[in-house]
Amino acid sequence: MLTATVSPPNMPHEIVEEFQSIGLPLNKKMENMLNEEPEHQRPRRGCGYTQASRHLAEYINQPRGLTTRLDLRLFSEAGQRRLGQMVTATLEILGRLPKDLDEVEQVLRSNEQVNGQFPQHIETLHRLRTIGERLAFEESQLVANIVLSLLGFSSKLKEAGSLELPHYSEKLAIGTCPEAERYFLEFSAGYLRRKGIINIFVDQNNQPVIIEKISVGDSHSCITVADLILNSVHIPAGSLLGTTYSTVPLDTERCADMNGSWLPIDVTHGFRFLRLTTLSVSPENRARAFSNHLKKQLEGSPFFDPLNASIADLRRVALKQCPRNIKRS
Prior knowledge:
3-stranded mixed sheet; disordered N terminus; about 325 residues
């Protein structure tokens, strides 16, 4: 049985230090969240890491773009200026705004081979692209992957053909407080509360990728059980999403033994990223990553096994709901 141990307080998060070391500090709000400042430890906020994933949602759910109004706002003013210089240099070469930093790096590298320009820009972009190689913590890797895909660096998920979800552009009335995990943790043990509904969204291979809950907590709150792509951004398993849809087909297949349906993604109007759940980090690293958030799940009215439940548990339970598992009389 795992026990909750939390990293020493007042220590800068490694991902904050790594972005600073390459001359691209994150914005102050993001730094304060990742550094677990006291203001981000309030019960409904969870912890700073949880808050940081909510902050990332502001970028994930907007159009991609390399301007100070869009994705570059992830960085401090100094970081924005430095990246802005790279974007401007690329603009002058291409005669148009580059679509992402992946294209910026490619253009500057090609130009450097011709006339030796931009070595500092190229070095910075290389260190940014490879930031994951210098991060020790699993939770840091999750944030880095999201940031890199926000900026347009090629995603391994896209190369592997991972499912890209439709994105819903309007805000949804779905909360993100720590209570969201309570019902998904219960479902990981095969338990669904009375009057609750669990829908399983499946990919093109009829494999479960998202679990949606209805009538327990906020309806249409979902958790991913596979790595996915949303609005061109890498979304790891264990992400909290919101969805909306008007109707489902009359011939929708029912879950094998729980109240709910086995649904294709295209019945929805799309999804919005809300935050990372505690399940996004493996049990052995969860207490370090989610600190006060996880502590609250163990106190008062404790959640079901928040230290040990896993995405693999959720996926196993979801697979059991496949209609082909229905016992025919």
